[in-house]
From TrEMBL:
It comes from the Bacteria. InterPro entries: Galactokinase, Galactokinase_CS, GalKase_N, GHMP_kinase_C_dom, GHMP_kinase_C_sf, GHMP_kinase_N_dom, GHMP_knse_ATP-bd_CS, Mevalonate/galactokinase. One of its GO terms (molecular function) is isomerase activity. Gene3D superfamilies: 3.30.230.10, GHMP kinase, C-terminal domain. Residues 280-361 form the GHMP kinase C-terminal domain. This is Galactokinase. Pfam families: GalKase_gal_bdg, GHMP_kinases_C, GHMP_kinases_N. Residues 12-59 form the Galactokinase N-terminal domain. The lineage of its organism: Bacteria, Pseudomonadati, Bacteroidota, Flavobacteriia, Flavobacteriales. Residues 94-181 form the GHMP kinase N-terminal domain. PANTHER family: GALACTOKINASE-RELATED (PTHR10457:SF7), MEVALONATE KINASE/GALACTOKINASE (PTHR10457). Signal peptide: none annotated.
């Protein structure tokens, strides 16, 4: 978490409203492995990171009037509690008002409040800035209005805001990782039961490095929803709740009743669930080479079976295969842009970073961006000290 960012958000709230706010830090997340499995009730292995959203929030003494300021964008939005509707192309506004409305639908009473928020999560990098914003709002509202919501209830509210206002039918992973993160741990989450197991992360001479393509292809949301519909169609045909209950054998039994494209999507999810479980075992036995192999396998599946990669992501993953200093890499997030996650030898970070930056620029005539990250605690109150 950036102390400078926290101080700036706090001071902007004071200068705008002339009274003290509550300050919340809500982290973004990485996902070590387990992509597109969460909305299929599968397994994922995310972790909260030290980049995220800082929100300053407090009641303003009115019954209805709310004021939100997006510090980074120098934009604001005013709304009243009794007349909230999704905003077409509303961007960040829908995350704020979506959470507020879902809290009210949950039967909790609110009054007017002010909020200022900003962050240091790179836009479009696949680190779930939207979930971090949503969690910061619901956590802040829970504190200042003493709503007595549990963290489980808060993340469900954040998820419903994403579904009903941002119109993205996301799973629960992003909100869960952002809310429940534990420093220096990943969370093996069962998205069906909501049970999680923390896994200590100690990569020894290796570390995680994110490389951002700095591209975000425009079909992401529609393609995301299309993939979800294909997965749900398989489960429905087999009279199962989700792909979590589908085995490869049962998928093969309907192979002649679905398209080849749909079959590939279902097979990817089944295999990716197995990869998550195998990655946890490899981490527990400190078998980093196997972790790396599973990362590469995951990318192969995302590229060729689930078909959510892109040329830039594939280039970055393929580039790492030319050195022994990278054990594994894959695309991370919904796809069609964003970051790759790389398990790389710490002593080689500088040299490999320079090489990949030069090669990427030569190939695509644009820059990639490289981020070191640390694993963080989840959404929490913080101070400006």
């Amino acid at each position: 978490m950036s102390e400078v960012l926290t101080k700036n958000i706090y001071e902007h709230f004071i200068s705008s409203h002339q009274y003290e706010p509550l300050v919340i830090f809500s982290p973004g997340r990485i996902n070590l492995i387990g992509e597109h499995t969460d909305y299929n009730n599968g397994y994922v292995l995310p972790a909260a990171i030290d980049k995220g959203i800082v929100a300053a929030i407090q009641k303003n003494g009115t019954l209805q009037q709310c004021n939100a300021i997006a510090y980074d964008l120098n934009e604001s939005h005013q709304f009243e509690l009794e007349s909230i509707e999704p905003i077409e192309n509303g961007g960040w506004r829908n995350y704020i008002i979506g959470v507020v409305e879902e809290v009210q639908k949950y039967g909790k009473m609110l009054s007017g409040f002010n909020i200022v928020f900003g962050g240091n999560i790179p836009n479009g990098a696949g680190m779930s800035s939207s979930a971090a914003v949503e969690n910061s709002v619901v956590f802040g509202l829970n504190e200042i209005f003493e709503l007595e919501l549990t963290k489980e209830e808060m993340i469900r509210i954040s998820q419903r805001a994403e579904h009903n206002f941002a119109k993205v039918k996301c799973g629960i992973m992003d909100q869960f990782a952002s809310m429940f993160g534990i420093e220096n741990h990943a969370l093996m989450l069962d998205c069906k039961t909501m049970e999680s197991k923390s896994t200590a992360i100690d990569f020894g001479d290796y570390q995680l490095l994110l490389i951002n393509t700095n591209v975000k292809h425009s079909l992401t949301d529609s393609a995301y929803n299309d993939r979800r519909e294909k997965c749900e169609s398989i489960a429905k045909l087999l009279k199962k709740e989700s792909l979590r209950e589908v085995t490869k054998e049962s998928l093969d039994s309907i192979k002649d009743r679905i398209s080849g494209n749909t079959y590939k999507k279902g097979l990817y999810v089944i295999e990716e669930n197995d990869r998550v479980l195998n990655t946890v075992k490899a981490l527990e036995s400190n078998n980093l080479e196997e972790v790396g192999n599973l990362l590469y396998q995951s990318h192969e599946g995302l590229q060729h079976q689930f078909e959510v990669s892109c040329e830039e992501l594939d280039f970055l993953v393929d580039f790492t295969k030319n050195t022994d200093d990278v054990l594994g890499a894959r695309m991370m997030g919904g796809g069609f842009g964003g970051c790759t996650i790389n398990l790389i030898k710490t002593s080689a970070v500088c040299s490999i970073s320079e090489k990949v930056e030069n090669a990427y620029k030569q190939k695509f005539k644009k820059d990639c961006s490289i981020y070191n990250i640390a694993l963080s605690n989840g959404t929490h109150k913080t101070t400006t000290l």
